Amino acid sequence: MLLDIRDLKIEARAEAGWTPILHGVDLAVDRGEVVGLIGESGAGKSTLGLAAMGYAAPGLRFAGGSVRFDGTDLLALPEARRAGFRGRRIAYVAQSAAASFNPAWRLIEQFCEGPAIHRTASRAEAEAFARQLYAQMSLPEPDRFGLRFPHQVSGGQLQRAMVAMAMACRPDLIVFDEPTTALDVTTQIGVLAAIRQAVEGFGAAAIYITHDLAVVAQMADRIKVMRHGREVEEAPTRQMMAAPREDYTRSLWAVREFRRPARELPGGAPLIRVAGVTAGYGAKTVLEDVDFAVPKGATVAVVGESGSGKSTTARVITGLLPPQAGRVELDGQALPPRLADRSRDQLRMVQMIYQMADTALNPRQTIRQILSRPLAFYLGLTGRAREERLHQLMDQIELEPGRFLDRRPSELSGGQKQRIGIARALAADPRFIICDEVTSALDQLVAEGILRLLSRLQDEQGLSYMFITHDIETVRAIADEVVVMRHGRVMDRGPRAQVMDPPRHDYTRQLLASVPQPDPDWLTRRIAEGVR
Amino acid sequence: MSGGAARSRPLRRMIGLRLGIGLLTLFLISVLVFLAVALLPGDIAQQILGQSATPETVAAFRRELGLDQPLPQRYLGWILGILQGDFGNSLANGRPVADLLAARLGNTLFLAGYAAAIAVPLSVLLGLLAALWRGSWFDRGVNVVSLSAISFPEFFIAYILMFWLSIRLGWFPSMADPGAAPSLAEMLGRAFLPAVTLVLVVTAHMMRMTRAAVVNVLGAPYVAMARLKGASRWRIVTRHALPNALAPIINVIALNIAWLITGVVIVEVVFVYPGLGQLMVDSVTNRDMPVVQACALIFAAVYILLNITADVLAIATNPRLLHPR
User: Fold this and answer.
1) Are both A240 and A112 inside the same structural domain?
2) A 80-139: CB under 8 A from B
3) A174 shares a domain with A147
4) A33 to chain B nearest CA, in Å?
5) Do A230 and A308 reside in the same domain of the chain?
6) How high is the ipTM of this complex?
7) pLDDT at residue B316 in the model
8) A-chain residues within 8 Å CB-CB of B240?
9) What is the pLDDT of residue B84?
10) pLDDT tens, position by position, B236-275
11) What is the domain extent for residue A299?
């Protein structure tokens, strides 16, 4: 057994003393084996993955158990000896390569750091190995790629460079901590292929941490499901995919099946029309001749990879970015291009919900203050009328007014915060809401709750949504119409079934084909088909 | 490599721009200094010659000084002279101001350089160690000692040092005039006490900024990554954190060096050190306006130049600006 973690307990520093976050977990990894760890955020997956390196993040401590790596208990070693294992025998690939590469160093310097610290190779050997790996991972100009700084490289390339860096000392075990979570599906598939190749090519064992079931099905030989710092169940991948034992596991599997029921749209003229919009920042054009409409009471999903212009379209509609050409119409009337020129009523009609509820809510204000502001600003509500409306809003987002109104955002969970973001948009009594990746930062179960809530509110209040997302499953779950964007242009648009089932446009086909499927053979097939 | 020239162009443009703004600032300051001196109450010629001088002598002296000409013309004459290296003549002793300044500026730069050569490496090292062992007794000890040093007035530190190291132990002279010393070693010995006083005053500021900037960076994911690559803590602090924390540190160092050149009057007076600060104080007392103006202009130039240097260095250490996409 290469790695044998027994009854591992880890505690986090809390206000009073220490609270356990891993309650005695076992994890065994054989040589050359890939074990997937899956679960919601807060399940302790990353903590367990880092513990495999004998590392506890600042604020955490080991409280019991053992981490045996190749026969040595890492927890019994002094820190300096543990450092001798890290990078050399056990390597780590982080979620955000952009944050995990030192911005002041060239990529090749960072690659060669491990071999230099552990003296596993000379500088020339390390550089040659780096170039070889860069080439294997299909990075551009592999001989010169390492001379770049992290900011000069795209996200997908950087993530592949990090996989290459993890291989620098030819480790026996690699911990992959959500390595593709931050990437677009079209980029993700290339990184997944690179990881598969690295692990198989070097015979390394791996721990693959993710919350994406379809991804872990591609990568892992065995899957361990975790929740609240405990193991839920563990089984070989195919067995786990076909027949999960535990209810919790089945609920994870089931999330992907939410579809809003079919319904009739009121019809008539569209509520929002984006007509021939061209926009950009300075000399750089980001949107070119973008054209689509949002029918009354409908949800239009705008999909595309990052950089496709989805969020810029939202900025044009809200008036944050006046377009260089074209116009935006609300109910047949052209909206003034600049935010400052719009009337309060026009502002009220168009509201927005953001991806990061964390940063979109003022941390110093209570929920009551956050929600009262739009009520006072747009509707002039005060006193009892405002209080009544506050309670009504809280009921609508299914949070108890008495419990939550006087809390601050930091006292709420991620899903609750996003609900407050929705309530804030609703408070203005809008007709159109732009949802910018509102579920991307949330766990699947929580995200599903948000989608159900938004669907219900739409049915009750006849709202129109523009749903910006890169997640195809979300599109399938809620969209009436779909706009596919790429490089600032609309590739295809229309009713969901026409655009997606089956995909009508080449790019839509590519996008859909890049979405990982729970079928464990999916990636193998895609690689065989020559996808990069 | 064809990209090299294109890449360094923004940096070169930036340096050019900063230098241009610096020159403009210097010009404005020269106007301000000139006006401030010119608008001082009282007649310089009268004051120098004394109350007993006849009106004719005063008028003649005024003509000689050019005080009878209109302000713009006087300013123009002064600034054009400076551009050619002529700062005018001292009113006190008639010697060219440039000669007076040269010796004094040399002494001031020597003392500032001496103090900086000790204080900058010392405070950066202490700051790094405090960041490395943050929360430890060392961190707290360094903080307490350096804060105490900065909290005492300079003259107090100066007299304490003088009392112990000079009067009681006799190791260093209490009067510090390096200009008279024959060798560098002798000069360093004579200027030791003022230099140490200055070091004690400036170290706390730079040390604390180094510590804060490095600690700030230590929370970054790439620092955790470095630990997971097996890097030692010292390596993480010096190789991973420091390069990303340089900008604020450089700025504080520049400000402190500028202070070492322009703000050390008290220390110079205590140790009777013949520096620029003392010259300026003496000249103000003597109403030796050409010298006062020249000193003020030099101090301003030092500040501007050091700040430009800090800005450029701070930008040059940021790879995003130095190597655009």
Assistant:
1) yes
2) 80, 83-88, 91-92, 94, 96, 99-105, 113-114, 117-118
3) yes
4) 21
5) no
6) 0.80
7) 82
8) 102
9) 86
10) 999 999 999 999 999 999 999 999 998 888 888 888 888 8
11) 272-501
